[in-house]
Predict the 3D structure of the following.
Amino acid sequence: MSTNLISKLRKITGAGIKICSDALKESNYDIDKACLWLRKNGLIDVLEKSNKFAKQGIIHSYIHGNGVLGVLVEVNCETDFVARTYDFKNLVKEISMQIAAFAPVYISRNQIPRNIIETEKNIYKIQFEKERKSKSLIDKVINGKIEKFYKTVCLYDQIYMRDVLGKMTIKDLVKNTIAKVGENIVIKRFVRFKLGEN
């Protein structure tokens, strides 16, 4: 097995040599599939590992509609070299346009205050209890509603606007770019301004 492949997978995921070697063997030496295998087996979360290493990157501004809508976003990577590449710059541009179009509130699920999730669940619970459904069915429906809520308010969970099949999320888009450039990438922060909104 190529040590370069193991090294690249370690850089992307932060996983150990043995784990990376096993993941590559299980994935027919495909980096993308190896990342997926590691995640499915609960061994890593690429985007959580990214925060530890990504200290370089760029701050990008996107203005839409003759100054009616604007986005400022910071996306980090590990080196200035990658920050200057087409793949990284294009990712940042696509992220800023996604924010402009779909107005996420948070980057990821773990940023949502617990009380907001509980409030959403209680609203759905009250709605469905009136219909006298079983508790197990209510819980299942509520979990489905919360997943839809995440897809609306969390940038990583949103469907990528250019994916015609409606399956690729922004998290997937970031991970695909990580695999291309061989470095960790993290969306650090963003702000979205729309004229007339508070």
